[in-house]
Design a protein that fits this description.
single chain; 588 residues; Rossmann fold; Penicillin-binding protein 1b fold; 5 domains; 6-stranded mixed sheet
């Protein structure tokens, strides 16, 4: 059985079908009780998949929302309906603490809600607490740029200034733009990557996304949308709640209405207190204009179709639907208990599902059962759930590998705009001070002297200016940033700068490479002798070793897994090895 078949069977669950009938009758309040583990995400998604319109899932906090999102991403991989809606900041009125990556995610969610008819939004109270630009204002502050259309660069410049974008030499985060001749770079709040617009006269010749760190192109596009920071102004008039974007049919799925209302009111009271303590309030809007309070929230909840995941419903007269579920048992790594549990469910004609997004964990479990002589049946599912559960009505048992092996299960959220880790990023360049030491891979150690635009064949070229020994100057183009890194040495030590046009740096690099090769060669000779002699062969892995590896909290990368298998192969051999370590070392 694949994921699609599993989802289809979940959609046929009696309680899911009962819920859909109630929603069709326009009865607005439903109470689900008896939910455990990830059954909440499995069955609510099964309903949403059969019910048209927007679906908003409100969890108690960001962590729960992230786990819920990951469950849905596993059950419905690459589904464009899924969108995460986070809070943009931790403290009201603290604009400097705004997380641009979260603003991008919020903008993406609002953009989808305003342009699509079927979205699944996963969020939490702190995110709903912040009001956003009204639908009308967002549309009036959104500009679509298309290839082969005519726009003057002056118009683009004025538009971006009106949207409060910052003009910089190089863009590296949302809300920035740069103009270089006939090229305009824009980092919109509706995208994880910046866009590069190339003009031929006043006509847009091409639009491409590019990597903000390396400045290299990623992909071509026929159009893109410029969207301003929807949270950026504290004096904005006409702010609306998130719920104003829910047009047409909609269902609100909420962990606990009572806890959600309490959290929103707590945040609102905090905003009132911070606002009262502020000295300069002239340019700031009052909390009522910027944030949602408990009363406004209740008014929305009363008018919307709402399903509450709570044993005690907040609303009187809610239609109660009780699931017959139990949580995945705890086995404490006792695989005899696990075997008995599997076999017991097999006898009762239950279908055992094992959810894991790591094939190696499935392999380890098969090996463990083989080692202990257990003839059990289960269906592996290439997807992760946060918590397993047992459903008596559907006769299914959903196990999770991390609960079996007692591994910590981390949630994963989409990364924001990516930054390089080793090479200097544009943001780091802006943070460099004149006189800071940097290393160029071809020219050695020099000093950072700022950013400068120079003329290259009649065209302006953005460069980084580096000063070397005796005042030599090197201009490094923006496309060669990957060849520069910040100098790292002993604390407080002043490095010796290199002189351009000499072989000093190359000589030092070659000498270092030579010494490394000599060391590696000596080690290879030593281990070649050891390899020719008989050694001690270790026994092959048992289920205890597989259990230990499976319980490790982090997932191996493919290279780590291969290295582990190579080490085991050598350890189980009668000849001493480990030579591959030094072959790799020599290649470096």
């Amino acid at each position: 059985m694949n994921l699609k078949s599993f989802n289809n069977s979940s959609q046929e669950h009696p309680k899911v079908l009962e819920t859909l009938k109630i929603i069709e009758k326009l009865e607005t309040k439903i109470n689900w009780s008896g939910l455990v583990g990830s059954a909440q995400s499995v069955f609510s998604a099964a309903c949403a998949d059969q019910c048209p319109g927007h679906h908003v899932f409100v969890l108690d906090n960001k962590e729960d929302a992230a786990y819920f999102l990951n469950d849905l991403q596993g059950l419905y991989p690459n589904d464009k309906r899924l969108v995460f809606y986070p809070a943009s900041h931790k403290t009201p009125y603290q604009i400097e603490d705004t997380d641009n990556a979260s603003v991008v995610a919020r903008t993406e969610a609002l953009k989808k809600l305003s342009t699509q008819k079927n979205c699944w939004v996963i969020t939490y109270p702190e995110a709903l607490f912040e009001k956003v630009l009204s639908v009308k204002k967002l549309k009036s502050n959104t500009m679509k740029i298309e290839v082969d259309k005519t726009y003057s660069i002056e118009f683009i410049n004025e538009l971006l200034l009106e949207y409060n974008f910052e003009q910089v030499n190089y863009v590296y985060e949302p809300g920035q733009y740069s103009i270089r001749g006939g090229i305009v770079d824009v980092f919109s709040f509706a995208s994880d990557t910046p866009y590069r617009i190339e003009f031929f006269g006043n006509e847009v010749e091409s639009i491409r996304t590019f990597d903000a760190a390396s400045q290299l192109s990623i992909s071509s596009h026929s159009f893109f949308t410029i969207v301003p920071n929807i949270q950026g102004e504290m004096l904005v008039k006409g702010m609306d709640s998130f719920f104003k974007y829910l047009k047409g049919e909609k269902v609100l799925w909420i962990d606990s209405v009572e806890r959600t209302l309490a959290r929103i009111q707590l945040e609102f009271d905090k905003a009132l207190h911070i606002y009262d303590e502020l000295e300069n309030k002239e340019r700031l809007s009052e909390p009522e204009q910027l944030f949602l309070n408990e009363k406004e929230c209740i008014e929305v909840f009363e008018l919307i179709t709402l399903v509450e995941f709570n044993n005690n419903s907040y609303f009187k007269g809610s239609k109660k639907i009780e699931f017959s579920l139990s949580p995945q048992p705890s086995f404490n790594k006792n695989f005899d208990l696990l075997k008995e549990d599997f076999l017991d469910h097999q006898k009762k004609k239950f279908t055992n599902f094992l959810f894991s997004n790591q094939p190696k964990q499935i392999e380890r479990l098969y090996q463990i059962f083989e080692d202990i002589g257990a003839s059990v049946e289960f269906t592996p599912m290439n997807s992760a759930l946060h918590e397993g559960f047992i459903c008596k009505e559907s006769k299914i048992v959903c196990y999770t590998d991390h609960q079996i092996f007692e591994r910590y299960h981390r949630f994963r959220l989409k990364e924001g705009f990516r930054q390089a880790k080793q090479a200097l990023t544009l943001k780091e360049i802006y943070n460099l001070q004149k006189g800071d030491y940097v290393t160029h891979i071809d020219h050695g150690v020099g000093q950072f002297s700022g950013l400068e635009t120079i003329d290259v064949n009649g065209k302006p070229q953005e460069t980084i200016r580096l000063i070397y020994k005796e005042g030599d100057v090197l201009y490094v183009g923006i496309h060669s940033l990957h060849r520069i890194s910040k100098f790292t040495g002993k604390d407080g030590s002043v490095p010796k700068m290199n002189k351009l046009g000499t072989q000093t740096w190359n000589t030092l690099k070659n000498k270092t490479k030579k010494k490394i090769k000599e060391l590696a060669f000596d080690l290879i000779q030593l281990y070649a002798k050891r390899r020719s002699q008989p050694g001690y062969a270790f026994t092959a892995d048992t289920y205890l070793q597989n259990e230990l590896e499976a319980s490790f909290m982090y997932e191996d990368t493919p290279d780590q897994y291969k290295a582990t298998q190579d080490v085991k192969k050598d350890m189980e051999s009668k000849t001493s090895s480990f030579i591959f370590f030094f072959v790799l070392f020599l290649r470096v």
